[in-house]
Amino acid sequence: MFESVSAAPPDAILGLTDAYKADPNPEKINLGVGVYQDEQGRTPVLGTVRAAAARLAADLASKSYLPITGSADYAEAVQKLMFGDQDEIPRSRRAVTAHTPGGTGALRVTADFIRQNFADATVWMSQPTWANHPAVFAAAGVPTKTYPYFDKASNGLNFEEMIAALKKIPEGDVVLLHGCCHNPTGIDPTAEQWAEIAKTLRTVGALPLIDFAYQGFGEGVKEDTAGLQAFCRPGEELIVCSSFSKNFGLYRERVGAATFVAADQDSMLRVASQVKRAIRSNYSNPPSHGAELVVTILQDAKLRKQWEGEVAEMRDRINGMRTLLVEKLAEHGAPGDFEFIKRQKGMFSFSGLTPDQVERLKNDYAIYIVGSGRINVAGITPSNVDRLAKSMADVLKG
Ligand code: PMP
């Protein structure tokens, strides 16, 4: 039977890593896949993760199955982390949190839940968005559409057109928003804009779905919840898909969460039963190690403080590289104003490079960037920034 199977195209982003690995050029630079790297280009295991792993290894309690939605300790820790001092939702017990395999797992569980309970709902996503967003919802059979987001002229948010589009969304549809550090643009709404987005969704009767994959990479662990907070009002519903791949450096442990906030506890219990059903037929129950690491760190005041320091260190390094790249681009006479790179938040920068320029950087300079022009700023280091800026300046000059 397999002779009739045609080859699928390689994943646009992960395929780029394969091409990078195969490139013999010793000066090659990988700015593709969204993984944090330190100044030496390594993706380190955080000190707090090492400490938590040692504790867990000394006290291996059981490897029996977890409940379908994971452990209660994890759910509590995740809710505390994202709702912070605004604890009306945890106190009212109107949210259910399921531990999922990564943020991608959270999105897929959400997609299955939407398909099974709101068969007519469309999920609206920003133009552009993370490439896997439409793919995950399509795989679950959920239709998707886009709303305007990026304004090429200003390298900023096209807020007017975004709001105008959101105002036309039919009642009962779902609107996917990036909680902070928008991937791929690095452009987030301001506090006032978040308030207006929340008000608009409330008015049209659309369900907010917040993808929260970079908490702590924008302004700070607490500060980055500002967008999410705009949707946290008594009696209001929302879904949050969290990922701890980046902020805990737990990429391969696959640790994330899907949190469904209902209007009241009664609705939450019914929603929880449907979430369990979606998970049971998908992966049955979650892996435990990554979640145990997260719980150990968040429950211990000293480790928690140390972890916030580690997140700040990653954030500060990325922001330092933004500033340095802008300086170096000017030094090498790159045509245009690149100040916008400093304003972008999180791991990514939408550089404005065209697909042709991206191709030239790969073929002529061994610099690997996603076709959309998205640069993983965390892949820039003090030792490669000069070559990167000079090469970018070269291709920008034509
Ligand atoms: N959402 C966004 C916006 C992301 O960028 C990513 C990771 N690239 C994810 C979700 C999924 O993260 P995970 O690796 O935890 O599945």
TrEMBL record:
It comes from the Bacteria. Residues 27-391 form the Aminotransferase class I/classII large domain. GO terms for cellular component: cytosol. One of its GO terms (molecular function) is L-tyrosine-2-oxoglutarate transaminase activity. Its EC number is 2.6.1.-. Its cofactor is pyridoxal 5'-phosphate. InterPro entries: Aminotransferase_I/II_large (IPR004839), Asp_trans (IPR000796), NHTrfase_class1_PyrdxlP-BS (IPR004838), PyrdxlP-dep_Trfase (IPR015424), PyrdxlP-dep_Trfase_major (IPR015421), PyrdxlP-dep_Trfase_small (IPR015422). Keywords: Aminotransferase, Pyridoxal phosphate, Transferase. GO terms for biological process: L-phenylalanine biosynthetic process from chorismate via phenylpyruvate. Homodimer. This is Aminotransferase. It comes from Posidoniimonas polymericola.
